[in-house]
């Protein structure tokens, strides 16, 4: 149905809304308890430039890591978080998100990719350990699903 907005009744340009984090979890740590990975899902939405109604979406899975935990072990020492059965004390939190676009190719055959960026932080409630970073996930704009 193209970019025809049902609310406005006309063909419109699309804007990219701020990404929504629908899932963010820590994975199992490695055998030596030196690294950990995480995964999640991000929802990217294209909205009507005129009225702001959601018109298209893409749900993208992402993975991050490995995150080096050697500093955590040094800081925590004998804290319960280092023990295997209590490793779940580590927490991951989503920070700020932002959307961006990039083009690939040129002219008529140019592809547009929508990029979701997430700032994340892993922390331990038993010590001062924190690890932080940014992860990006992208989807080609033509693969977004219509919401109407």
Commentary on this structure:
- It is a single chain.
- The chain is mainly beta.
- The chain has a domain at 24-40 and 63-146.
- The chain is 5% helix and 55% strand.
- It has one helix and eight strands; from the N terminus they run E-E-E-E-H-E-E-E-E.
- Strand 2 and strand 3 (35-48) form a beta hairpin.
Based on helices, strands and strand pairing, what is the structural class? mainly beta
Radius of gyration: 20 Å
Query: Strand-and-helix sequence, N→C?
Result: EEEEHEEEE
The rounded distance between the terminal residues' Cα atoms is 9 Å
Q: How confident is the prediction overall: mean pLDDT?
A: 88
- The amount of helix comes to under 10%
What oligomeric state is this?
single chain
Q: Low-confidence parts lasting 5 or more residues at pLDDT below 50?
A: none
> Beta fraction of the residues?
over 45%
Main β-sheet, in a few words? Answer: 5 strands, antiparallel
What gross morphology would you assign?
Answer: elongated
Strand runs, count: 8
Question: Number of helix segments?
Answer: 1
Question: What's the arrangement of secondary structure elements?
Answer:
Layout: E1 14-16, E2 20-29, E3 35-48, E4 54-68, H1 70-76, E5 91-104, E6 111-123, E7 130-140, E8 145-146
Antiparallel strand pairs: 1-3, 2-3, 3-4, 4-8, 5-6, 6-7
